Structures are given as C-alpha cells and as structure tokens.
Amino acid sequence: MFVDWKEQVEIEKEYVDDVEVELDRLNAAIEVAGQEIKDLYDDVSSRLGRDEVEMFATHGMMIEDSEFIGQIKGRIITENVNAEWAVRSVADKFIQVFEDMDDDYLKAKADDVKDVATRMCRLLLHIEGSDLSNLREKSIVVAKAFTASEIVQMNRDKVLGVVSQEGTLTSHAVIMARSWGVPAVIDVSNVLDVVETGDMIVVDGSEGVVILNPDEDTLHIYSEKQREFVDFSKKLSQMAGKSTESEDGYPIKLYANADTGRDVQGALKNGVSGIGLFRTERLYMDRDRLPTEGEQFGLYKKAVQEMGGKTVIFRTLDIGCDKIPGYLNVPDEDNPALGYRAIRLSLARADIFRIQLKALLRSSAFGKAKIMFPMISGIEELRLAKGVLEDVKNDLRKDGVPFNPEIEVGVMIEVPAAAVVSDLIAEEVDFMSIGTNDLIQYTLAVDRTNRNLSHLFSPFHPAVLRLVKMTIDNCRKAGVKVSLCGEMASDSLLIPVLMGMGLERFSMNVDSILKARWIISQLGKKNMEDTLSEIWGLTTAKDVRRFCEDRFGSLKKAF
Question: Is the pTM of this model over 0.90?
C-alpha cells in the first residue's frame, strides 16, 4: 500500500535561522532528484511507449524550471522557512492552477508537479521511496494516491488491479494503468481504513466498484462477468479491420481525435477513415518558447505520412482561456472563456499564425492534410483567417515551396452563433466539425468545470440537440461534409440520436473507436430517424436522457 505524498513526508512549517543552509539542502535535493529522474528515463525508454517516456522528460525539465525552483527559493529567502515546506507550498499553488484547468491534458500536469515535489520532499527528509518492482505474487495494489513514477516501476505481470483513495480518471497514473489493461477504480473514500494486506478484493473497473472480501455468490457473479468481458473484448477486437455501417447497411465514417504520434498509430490499428481532429496546441504547451516552423512541419508531415493517404484534419492553434503558455505574455482577463483565445489569438498574433499555416501547408505536399479554424463565430473571422492563409500560400509560391494549393479548409462549430449561421458559413468552407464540448458550454451558459453547475451541463438539452441538427441539415443542403468531434460522438446513448439526425462522420478518442463501431452495427438508420421524431417532442434534458436510457440502455450496459 501507499500513502498520500503529503502524509508520507509529514511536512511541518519551521522557521529557520540560516537561510543559506536551507538553500544548500534544496540544491542538493534538486541535484539528486534530477539524477533519479534521468535514471528512470533511461530505464523506461527501452520498455515503455513514447508518451510515458516524454512524461519523465517533462519531470526533468520541471526540476530545472527557473520559475518553479525560483519560487521555492524565493519562499525560503523571504519567509525564512525550511526547504521542504517551501517545496510543498509552491507545489500546492502550481497543482491548484493545473487542477482548475478545463483541458484534460493540462489538468493532468498537476500529477507531474505532485510527482516531482514528492521526490524532492522525500530526499529532503531522507525517506525511502515506494517500490513495487519486486511484487512476489499477483496482487491488487491499494493506495492513497499513485504517482506515475510508482506505476511505471510496477511489474505489470504481477498487478491485477489498482485502487486509490484519491485521484482522477485523467491522471497520468490511471491512464497508464488502463492502457495496460489493468482495471482501476479511483476516488474510493476511506479504502485504506478498511483494507488490509491479504484481503480478497473484487475490482470492477467498468462500474467503478470495489468489493471487499466477497462471498461465494458474489465471486461467482464476477467470475461470469469477467468471462463475458473477455469474450466481448475479443468480439470488439475483431471489429478493428471491419468497415463501419449500420445494421441496415448504411455506411458511417469513424475518425480519431489525436495530438500525438501514438494516437495516430492507434487510429490506424483500429481502422479509422482518418484523423478528424489533430490538436496542434500540445506542441506549444510543453516548452518555454514558441515551436519553430521546422519543428511544426516535422510533426505535421509525420502524421500525414503515417496515415498513408487518409485524411488528417489539423485544427490550428487553440490556446487561450486556461491554456496560455507563459511565454506569450497574454494579459489576465476577467472572463477568459469569452476572451482572447483560439482563432482570436491567432488573428491578433499573425506572426505566430503565419508560421503555423506555413508548416501545415508544407505538410500537405506529403499527404491528405486539411486545415480547420477553431472557435469561429461568424463570416468575418472566417474570411480574415482565410485571407491570412492565402497570403501564406502566395509566399510559398514565390519561394517555390511545394504544397497542395487546393487544400480543404473548414471550421469548428462550437459557438452558438456559428451554428445559427452555419448555412452562411457552408458557402465558404469545404467542411465543418461540430465541437460539442464548447458548444454545450456556450449554449447553456454553464462553465463545465464548475462542480456547482455540473447538473446543468448536459448534451441531452433540447437546445444543444437542435443546434447540432441545424448544422447537420445546413451542411447537407450545401453539400458540405460535416463531422462531430466532441464527447457526444462516443456517447453510447447519443450515437443513435446523432445517426437519426443524419450524421455520417464521427470523430472520437482512439479508445472509443471499436465501441462506437459495434454500437453502430447494432442500429438501423431508419429506426433512428423514427426515434428522433419522438425525441423532438421532449422538453427537458432529463426527459431526453431518460428516454435514451430506456431505449438504448442495453448498448451502454454491454460495456
């Protein structure tokens, strides 16, 4: 078992007389921590995927980050406190900033801070770290919380499941465990108070259930569930090489959302029609400077080449709001969700925008690349963005740089205004993609990160469904391709509704592709159209959700 890092190091605030001694202690811990991270990086490089390895490269950069370390040293100097307290207090501040962010990728950065801070505090207090690399028998590991460093050192052949008292589904540790096929249940209150080494536990990762010392009947039930799960997983794996079509033979195209090479490889493995949303902002976030044109071109070119002639839709830089790297020096805003972000930031910083467009255009010479502008609210923004694109094309022509002059251009429909005028937008683009995560937020005026309002954030709201249907209909009338790339695209209860609306292109995270393909194969398109007419008669989000659960709950239960 593990305990939470704050409890493990038992940090107390102490006032010190000699600041120089504390700074020396801190510098020594930084040096040793840096070497430990390097050793761990070298160890995992030969046996883990690229993303896991890059995570420890991030830890290495953090231990050398002038802002992070500078604030720790500043606190020691200005407050005359012990080094471990300074590490903890600064780390807590960084952790809170990341945990409050909307983007799941950036939210998970809190885990990196926790991991590095844990290591530094352990060294400062001379506490031995946890080591599960030598488990003697197959076990379920229960912890207060896991760090990614602890997970990667586990012998995965010996770990049957993981349970933690705290944590989130988006944490590095949980994502890593799930990628190994290990059932994980997170945020189990007081589990460490009741579980002891040697207890028998059932871990149901699908339902988020943990059962301590089950009786024979319960064991039999879960043995059957385990067998059914294995059989169904085999059935799903057989869907990888099949085309996607409804029960009555209507073809549907499935695309993957991606922001790394690993996502592209997973998409190919699952037999997608292409990448429906390649998020380019990750390249801007993991650094202390803007990526060069060459760095961007290398990433984009590799993606289109790996897809082997299949579509890759690159969304231009979508940062702002809670995703602003410090080097951009963007001023604080009272209402950042409605402020300086996405296409607005790109148009205001044409120097950054032009470099990205040049790299994207160059990549189009090597495969089927497309360009998509985020957070377009109307025709004016669209025309400005297209104007910059045409200028960049002219520059490339003058320099004799090859690119596809007929590259398709599209927009994200994630602002209600854009959905309302989607008939006008359709006259000026080659395709649209409905980004429902933001569309729901802006339509319902609900901050999706605000727990007090989470009950109001619903993709089943009639207003949201009507805007989605309006956009699909307008695209169909104009002969413009339309896809949907928000979380609705992989929702077991909403895939049937979207099919009934006439949506023919779905884009989703790689791990949802086979599930969606199976669901679609169980549905008749004509039946879904008839079902949709019943939904239009419902007046509240609760009514729509209840209807979908009654009608399509069996599909959700299958997983």
Answer: no
